[in-house]
Amino acid sequence: MELLHHWSTATYATLTPELDQQEMWQTTVIRVAIDHPFLLFEILAIAALHLAVCRPDNKKRYYRRATELQNNALTSFNNDVIQVDESNCAAILLYSSLLGVHILANRSETANLGLSEYLDHLLKYIEMTRGVRNLVIADWWQYLQHSEIQPLTRVSVKDAQAPYYNIPRECRQLSDLIQESDLQYSSVQAYDKAIDRLFWVYDVADVPASTHDNIRWVISWPVQLSAEYMMLLNQRRPEALIILAYYGVVLHSYRKSWAIGDCGALLVNAVNAQVGPYWQRWLSWPLQKVGSS
Q: pLDDT (tens digit, 9 = 90+) per residue, 128-158?
């Protein structure tokens, strides 16, 4: 009861600044979770992670409880979800989104990681959020836009369109990076799409001019990434990693969120440690924005 009460009175409001979405997270999501235990377990896990931040004297207990609940959620999901359909697609979208937040917010798993290990951890988060598209968005997005979680599917009040994104001029050097590299056509396509979607997030979230205390647009980039880009990222290709570092600036803009904190700075520094000196000029701006040198 403690965790459900905390979710319903505090945690839900930290996820988005938009009131209709807050109401959805506070009430609608609980109604959906009643019929889908995997979602209820993950809601309680997120509440436990939030309490670990709010009540640091008891953080070990809350982190332990969050891990137990996450395991329960995964077991329930594997047992209950045979296929995605109208009866469960909303619950799966909500569960998958919260699972990505869980990976970012679980400080007990990242406290003692080196930079290389932290990079592996962030790639796990990205793979998890990409799974949202594979499970639900590709086939069920139109249905969800008219469902009870419709507020979550609203893209933006801004009409951000390429090539007119309102982004810092330093970001546009990413396009130069791809043009100057000797790459296969398929890789160029994957990078161009990843950069375009990153510019879109910069625009709608007003990065880096604004700082946020919620997670409203945090997963909007990973969920749109292609399999080709993920392959290049998992191969630790420098160009893929440098693009990822610019996503670190997005995360850094959300550093006031209890769930994000220093994730952005850690990511940028992890990429900086991974690539060689030749690539440093492309990282100077992300390093500056997160306060590193």
A: 888 877 778 778 888 998 999 998 887 644 5
Tens digit of each residue's pLDDT (9 = 90 or more) over 109-129: 998 899 999 999 999 999 988
Check: CB of residue 263 under 8 Å from CB of residue 220: no
- Nearest alpha carbon to residue 263 among 115, 138, 140: 115
> Is the distance from CB of 45 to CB of 66 less than 8 angstroms?
yes
Flag whether the pTM goes above 0.90.
Answer: yes
CA gap 159, 122 in Å, rounded = 29
- Both tokens assigned to 56: 């640091």
